[in-house]
Amino acid sequence: MKHLVLITTVLLAPLAAPGADWRSGDVGVSAGFARLKSLVGDWQGDTPMGKAGLRYELVAAGTAILDRENIENMPPMLTVYYLDGDRLLLTHYCMTGNQPRMQARAYDAANRELKFQFLDATNLTSPAAGHMRNATFRFVDDQHLKTAWEFYEDGRLKMNESAEYTRVR
Prior knowledge:
CATH architecture: Beta Barrel
CATH superfamily: Calycin beta-barrel core domain
Strand content: over 45%
Oligomer: single chain
Largest sheet: 10 strands, antiparallel, barrel
C-alpha cells in the first residue's frame, strides 16, 4: 500500500503545481489574458528592423485582443489573442503570408512573463517554410514591454526578433 501511495503521489505531483501541466491548459490562462488586456493602448519601440509601433485594442466585446504592429519600411502585421475554453491562443497574421497559431504554455506572474509555443499554422506551404514559432512577452512594468518572437525556417531557429516598447498612450 505504501508503494501505491508513493507512486500516486509521484505521478500526480506535477499536476498539482501551478502551471506545471500545460497540456491541461493550467498555465494561468485567465491571469495571462488579463495581463494582455492591460496592454490596451499605443506603444513605441526599437527593433533590429527599425522603429516600431504597437496598438493593442479590445475587440469582440472584450473576448479578444487585437495587436496591430507597424515597423518602418515593412508591411503591417496583426496578432489576435483569445481564449478557447481552457487555452489562451494567439493567431499571428504575418507578412510572410502564413498565420501561425500558438498556445500559452506558461504564465509566470512573479517574473511577469508569458510564453507561447507553436500549435499549427494556416497557409504554411511546408513545415520547412519560414514562420513564427514561439513568442515571449515580458511585462517589465505598466509602461514597458519586452517581446521576443522566434522565426523558424528549415526546421531550425533562423532569427530571434526582440524588441522593447514603451507605452505612449
